[in-house]
Amino acid sequence: EVQLVESGGGLVQPGGSLKLSCATSGFSFDEYTIAWFRQFPGRQRDESEGISCIGSSTYTSSSVKGRFTISADSANNTFYLQMNSLKPEDTAVYYCAADDWAGCGVEFPLPIADAVDFDHWGQGTQVTVSS
User: CA separation (Å) from 22 to 11, 31, 73, 89, 96?
Assistant: First the structure.
C-alpha cells in the first residue's frame, strides 16, 4: 500500500526557513513521480499549485525557484522540501504526492505537475508565514 506522511509545517516569520519531510512506503522512487503541491485558501486540492517534482528529472515552479529545493533520500524512502526566504504569500497547506504515471516537466505551457494526475497524497501540513 502506498502511503505518504508529512511533517515539518508550522508558523515561521518572513525571511525564515522550514524543511518539510515526506516519509513514504509501498513504492520506489525510481518508478514514481514525487512532488510537492500547495493549496491556497479557498481552493480545492485538485487546484493545488505544483511547486516542485522529481520524475525523470527535477523541476521547480518559477514561483518558488531559487528559494525552495526538493530532494529525495531513496534509501530511507523520504523526500523533502527545503523552503528558504519565506514570504507571507507562501502561506498554504503543503502536500507531498506520488504517482506512477503523473508527469513532471518543463513549466510552460503546462504546470510542472498537475494535482489531478496524482493518486497518492500525504495528509497536508499547514505552513503559515507571518510576523
Answer: 18, 17, 10, 22, 6
Cα distances from 9 to residues 28, 102, 110, in angstroms, run 25, 25, 28
pLDDT value at position 120?
A: 98
For 97, residues 6+ apart whose C-beta sits below 8 A from its C-beta are 4, 34, 35, 36, 37, 115, 118, 120, 121, 122
Q: What pLDDT score was predicted for residue 110?
A: 85
Q: What is the mean pLDDT of residues 24-32?
A: 97
Peptide bond into 14 cis (omega under 30): no
DSSP 75: G
Which residue, among 1, 2, 8, 27, has the nearest Cα to 95 in the 3D structure?
Answer: 8
**Residue 56 clears pLDDT 80, i.e. is over it:** yes
| Alpha-carbon distance values, 99 to 3, 34, 60, 73, 118 (Å) | 11, 7, 17, 17, 5
Other CB atoms within a 10 A radius of the CB of residue 58 amount to 14
